[in-house]
Amino acid sequence: MQRLLIVGCGDVVRRVLPELVRRWRVYALVREPEEELRALGVLQILGDLDRPATLRRLAGIAHAVLHSAPPPGEGVVDARTKRLIAVLRRSRSLPRRLVYIGTTGVYGDCGGALVGEIRPLRPATARAKRRADAERRLREFGRDSACRVSILRAPGIYAGDRLPLERLERGDPVLGADEDVFTNHIHAEDLGRACIAALRRGGANRAYNAGDDSAIRMGDWYDKLADRCGKPRLARITRAQAAQRLPATMLSFMSESRRLDNTRLKRELKLSLRYPTVDAGLAAAREK
Questions:
Q1: pLDDT tens digits, one per residue of 101-159
Q2: Of the residues 48, 84, 87, 157, which has the maximum number of CB atoms within 10 A of its CB?
Q3: In a domain, 222, yes or no
C-alpha cells in the first residue's frame, strides 16, 4: 500500500479520512497526538511547519502529499510551504504527486467575470498573496522534480456544521443588489472528495477551480442562510456606507467579485458534485 502524507489535517481532510485510509497508508503531521486520528489508523508524526527542526522525518516518507496547511498569518510569503518543500527535497525519494488546497482569492477582483484557471493571478490581499506565493513555490517544485503537483483553488467552504452564522448574529449589513459582488462556494465534503480525485487524476502543474455550480451574490447567500435559520435578513447598504461602517477585513471580501468556471474540475478530475449548489447543501443540512 502506498504512503500518503497529510500536512494540515483539518476539517475538510477529516471528512474523507475514512476513505483515504482505505486507499493509502496515511501519515499526518500533527503538533500533538490525537486519539481520533489514531483510532482511524493514521500514523502521526509530531512536528510543526513553524519549527523546521521538527520536520526532518518527513523526508522520503511518502509517495504522495496532501497539503492543506494554511500559510502564516502575516506577510506575503508562505514560509510554511517553503519549509515543507525544503524538507521534501532532502530525500532522493521524492513524492510522486502533491495536492494543495489553495484559494480562489489569488485571482483578485474580476468584476463579476466568469473565471477559468488560465486567468492571470492578481491577488490583492496579503492572505491571497501568501497563497499565490505557495502556488508559485509548489509549481517550481513540480517542474524541478518528477512530482505531479495539482492545485485546488477553493472558494468559501461551508457545510451544515460549518456555516458563517456569526455575521447573522452580529447583524452586519451587506451590499445592495446593484453594488453586490458574486461569491463562490464549495461544500466541505465535495472539497474533500476533490482532494481524493486530484490524488488519482490531477495533472502535473495543473490548477482546478474547486467550486460548485452556484453563481449568487453575497447578499443572496446571507438571505438563504437567514431563511434557513429563521433569522432576520441582513440590511442592505451602499458601498459608501459600508466603507464607513464595516472593518477592513470584511470590506476586502466585499470588494472582489467573480464567478468560477469549474469545467476542468468535473471534466478532468471526473468529480460529480454531491452538493452542486448551495441550495442543495443547505437543504441537506436541514434534513440532518
A1: 999 999 999 999 999 999 999 999 999 999 999 999 999 999 999 899 999 999 999 99
A2: 84
A3: no
CA–CA separation, 267 and 117 (whole Å): 13
Task: Report the SS3 class of residue 140.
Answer: helix
Closest CA to 153 of 194, 193, 208: 208
Three-state secondary structure readout of 179-238: CCCEECEEEHHHHHHHHHHHHHHCCCCEEEECCCCCCEEHHHHHHHHHHHHCCCCCCEEC
CA dist., res. 185 & res. 213, Å (int): 9
How many structural domains is the chain composed of?
Answer: 1
pLDDT digit string, tens, across residues 172-223 = 999 999 999 999 999 999 999 999 999 999 999 999 999 999 989 999 999 9
Short-list 247, 226, 225, 246, CA closest to 237:
246
Q: What angle do CA 79, 82, 85 make, to 5 degrees?
A: 155
Domain membership flag for residue 224: no
What pLDDT was estimated at residue 287? 57
Range of the domain at 24: 3-163+185-215+259-277
